[in-house]
Amino acid sequence: MSTEPRTILHMDLDSFFVSVERLKDPSLLGKPVIVGGVGARGVVSSCSYEARKYGVHSAMPGAKAHRLCPHGIFLSGDSASYSKYSRIVTQVIADSAPLFEKASIDEFYVDLTGMDKYFGSYKWSTELRQKIIKETGLPISFGLSINKMLAKMATNDAKPNGQLMIERGKEQDFLDLKPVSKIPHVGEKLCESLNKMNIHSIYDLRQMPIENLLKIYGKTGTMLWNRARGISNSPVANYREEKSISVERTFDMDTTDLQFLQSALFVLTEKLSYDLRKLNRLTSCITVKVRYDDFSTTSRQQTVDYSLSSKYLIEMSASLFKSLYDTSRAVRLIGVRFSQLIHSNTQFDLFNDREEENNLYKAIDTVKNKYGTGKLILARGIDLGNVKRNRDVQGELKEQVNRETSISAKPKKEN
Questions:
Q1: Catalytic-labelled residue, pool 50, 101, 107, 248
Q2: What is the pLDDT of residues 223-259, one digit of tens each?
Q3: pLDDT attached to residue 356
Q4: How many Å apart are CA 31 and CA 37, to the nearest integer?
Q5: CB under 8 Å to 88, separation ≥6 — which residues?
Q6: Which fold has domain 173-227?
Q7: Which CATH superfamily does the domain covering 1-147 fall into?
Q8: Other C-beta atoms lying within 10 Å of the C-beta of residue 158
C-alpha cells in the first residue's frame, strides 16, 4: 500500500438550484432568490447569498422564510433542469479527472494523489474549475487538501465562487481557530453539547482527552478526536464503478395477465424505491427487464431526473414496461434496476414543496423499518412475498443475493 500523502480536491456548485434558475432567467442575478417554500407548508431547498443575509437557509419552513425575506423571489424548482446541469458538470469532470466521486447532485471529490509530480494539483484544479464555469455558466468553488474532510472545509471557506488550497503542513493552523460547528457532520445538538463544556473552537476540542470524549459521546468521541486533528481516511470512491440496486421476480406460472404484471411491476418498483431511500440515494437511470416463457430476455433503460420518489419512479418504470412488453407472449420474470446512484441531500429531497409526499414516504418507511417490508402494501400493489434483491453500492453493499423465491401468478377469474 502506498504511503504517499494524498491530495484531494473537493468541488461544490454554489447555490446550485438558484444558479440554474439564474441561467434560465438572468434578471434574477443579484436578487434574493429562494427555491422552494412557495406553498403554505413548503420548505426552502436552496437560496441565494442575497437571501441568506436575511437569515434564510435551506430546510427552513417557507412561512418563516417569507417573514424574514418578504421581498424574496420564491420559485417552485425544476428537477429536470437541475438533473441536466448536474450531468453536464459530471461529464466535464469525468473527461478530465483520473479518479472522482460524485457525492451528491452538486458535489464532487477528485483524488489527485501523485499529480504534483507531473502537473501541479492546484493548477490542474484551477483549470478544471474554469472549464466548468466556461462550459456551464455555473459558479463553482473548490478546496484542496490532504483528505476529504479538510478539502470540504476549504471549499466552504472559498465560497462563493472561489478556490482555496490548504498548504501541506498547515492543516492544524487552518483548523484550530474555527468553531466546532465547522466540522463536517457536527450538527446543532452536538455543537450545543460541546459548547456547554466550554468547547467552542477546534483548538478547545483538541485539548480534550480522548478518554473523556469516549466516555461522553461513545464512538462519536473518536470521530471528534480525529477530526480536531484533521484525521480522515475516507477514500474517494470511483464513480466509474457501477452502482446499482435491482429487484426481480420469477413467477411459478408464466402469465399474460397484463393487470397482474403491471401490479407486480408496481410492487417491485415501490420496494426498490424504499431501498433507495433507506440507502440515502438518488437514482438517475431505470432499467426494466422482461423474460418470456421461452427464456428470451429483453430490457430497456431510460435516463430520468434524479429522484427517490416512489410515485415518479413507478410512473417511469410503467412507461418503460409499456414500451417494452409484447402483450402476445407469456412472461416468466420481470425485474427493475436503478443505477447511476448518488448520495441524496436535504436540498434535493425538499425541493418542489413535496412535503406531503415526503411525509407519506417517511410514514410508510417507518412502518416497514419496524414491522417488515411486507406489512404495508400500497393500494395498487399485490403481495409478492419475498423478492430477489441485488445490491451493489460502492463502499456499503457488496453482497449479491442469488436466492430465488416464487409465487403463483393467479389468472383472472372468469365472469
A1: 107
A2: 999 999 999 999 998 765 557 899 999 998 999 999 9
A3: 55
A4: 17
A5: 135, 136
A6: DNA polymerase; domain 1 (1.10.150)
A7: Reverse transcriptase/Diguanylate cyclase domain (3.30.70.270)
A8: 20
Coil vs helix vs strand at 290: strand
> What is d(CA 289, CA 252) in angstroms, rounded to the nearest whole number?
17
* DSSP 8-class letter at 7: -
Residue with cell 418563516: 64
Give catalytic status of residue 107 as yes or no.
yes
Residue 368 has what pLDDT?
A: 54
- State residue 369's pLDDT score: 58
Contacts of 313 (CB under 8 A, 6+ apart): 269, 272, 273, 276, 283, 286, 304, 307, 338
Residues of the chain with pLDDT under 70: 1-3, 40, 239-242, 346-415
All three cell numbers of 390: 441485488
Question: How many residues can be counted in the chain?
Answer: 415
User: % helix / strand / coil in the chain, to the nearest 5?
Assistant: 40, 25, 35
C-alpha separations of 282 from 58, 245, 387 in Å: 19, 11, 22
Residue spans of the domains in the chain: they are 1-147, 173-227, 244-392
What span, in angstroms and rounded, lies between the C-alpha atoms of 94 and 101?
Answer: 10
Q: Are strands 73-75 and 33-36 parallel, antiparallel or unpaired?
A: parallel
Supply the CATH classification number for the domain 244-392. Answer: 3.30.1490.100
